[in-house]
Design goal:
About 60% of the residues lie in helices and about 0% in strands. The chain has about 290 residues and is mainly alpha-helical. It folds into two domains: about 35-145, Orthogonal Bundle (Cyclin A, domain 1), CATH 1.10.472; about 155-250, Cyclin-like (Cyclin A, domain 1), CATH 1.10.472. Helix 6 (about 100-115) packs across helix 8 (about 135-145) and helix 11 (about 200-215) packs antiparallel against helix 12 (about 225-235). The protein is globular and about 55 Å long. The two termini are about 35 Å apart.
């Protein structure tokens, strides 16, 4: 019997090169370069006249849903948001153009960070064709030119491997912490308030939150205070900045879990209300039951 499988195979990812992880110059260059790609949320007051943080979050959540649906690489969404924030900090756009900008940023990010980039037609369909396919190339060129073709930005995902490589974690635990940290980084990229932190700080706080969530200290790992001291020395950043970012990250995760629980409860209530009321039926005569 022939089976028809409509699932798309996941793209193959390269293994982390231990030579790059062991060389301290790589991390040093990342820390030195990240400053050139860091933005802040002040563009809402200084540049943009129609775009608000709430609008940015709505488009960011849509972009994240597209990445999850298409199973994009973990690096794609943070890079797309970085490109979008850098463009918004330079160019004033209309609110009707924000989804088009998000579409183009996703397209550029997939071209840079994964083997098979998303197609323009596919991205246009995710917008219900409010972003016309014929307009995407023009916007793509406009964004790239405005950013001087410097699109391969440093993102928090680039630091996760270097941080975990310097912690005493086994392979299985390291893989789980990596998944959790990448998830936290993606969730943080939706919020404009995290633009004030550098990618290395967000990565450090995400790793700390992931380890704290699995109670690493009770498994023979380090206490949170020792972990934060180590991250502060490794990333050359004040411990207070890491703690502030970690606190905001934990607050965001708590709010996200609360909203998800409320949405699930509302969905269950709607399903219960849509079901017909149960009415007892007359029992079947025992003589008519065939054993």
């Amino acid at each position: 019997m022939d089976l028809l499988c409509t699932e798309r195979a996941a793209d193959c990812s390269a293994y982390c090169d231990p030579m790059l992880l062991d060389d301290p110059r790589v991390l040093k260059n990342l820390l030195k370069t990240e400053e050139f790609y860091t933005t802040n949320s002040s563009y809402f007051q200084n540049v943009q006249t129609e775009i608000t943080p709430e609008m940015r979050k709505i488009v960011a959540e849509w972009m994240l849903e597209v990445c999850e649906e298409e199973r994009c690489q973990d690096e794609v969404f943070p890079l797309a948001m970085n490109i979008m924030d850098r463009y918004l900090s330079l160019v004033n756009i209309k609110k009707t153009q924000l989804q088009m900008l998000g579409t183009v940023c996703l397209l550029l990010a997939t071209k840079l960070r994964q083997p098979n980039p998303l197609m323009s037609m596919l991205l246009s369909s995710y917008t219900d064709y409010s972003a016309p396919v014929e307009d995407i190339p023009g916007w793509e060129l406009m964004v790239a030119c405005r950013l001087k073709w410097d699109l391969a930005a440093i993102t928090p995902v680039d630091f996760v491997g270097h941080i975990l490589h310097r912690l005493p974690l086994d392979g299985e635990l390291r893989a789980m912490v990596t998944r959790h940290a990448h998830t936290f980084i993606s969730l943080a990229a939706r919020e404009s308030k995290f633009c004030m932190f550098t990618p290395s700080i967000i990565a450090g706080a995400s790793v700390a939150s992931a380890l704290n969530g699995i109670r690493w200290s009770s498994r023979g790992g380090w206490p949170l205070s020792r972990l934060m001291d180590m991250l502060s020395r490794l990333l050359f950043v004040e411990k207070e900045y890491l703690c502030t970012c970690l606190g905001q990250l934990e607050e965001m995760l708590s709010d996200s879990l609360t909203q998800a629980a409320q949405a699930l409860q509302q969905q269950q209530q709607m399903e219960d209300e849509s079901q017909p009321e149960f009415k007892p039926q007359t029992p079947t005569d025992v003589n008519k039951v065939h054993f």
